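Possible regression after last week's pipeline update?

I re-ran a chain I had predicted before the update to compare outputs. Posting the input and the new output here so someone can diff against the archived version. Not blocking, just want to make sure nothing changed silently.
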Amino acid sequence: MSDGSLDLDPEGLRQVAFDVDTVAHRLGAVESPADENPPAPIVAWLDELPRLAGELHQFADVIRTVAGSVSVTEGEIWARFARSGDG
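New output (post-update):
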């Protein structure tokens, strides 16, 4: 069971962002079959993939920003801890 806490591991977050970007690249690379005439719902879905890929790239950027903030905050906490031990 979870205790409700959230462990924000900067390297783990960066890996998640990389994985999200990988999915976005793959979605953005999907093309409609040239030799077939797919049904309209599939064409509509395929037409949405570039937009979805773009949104996933933006989401990955947010995750990287959070990872950077966590790293800075963690560094500040350790710096304060070290300073408090000096007194």
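Follow-up from reviewer: compared with the archived run. DSSP finds two helices and no strands in the chain. Marking as no regression found.
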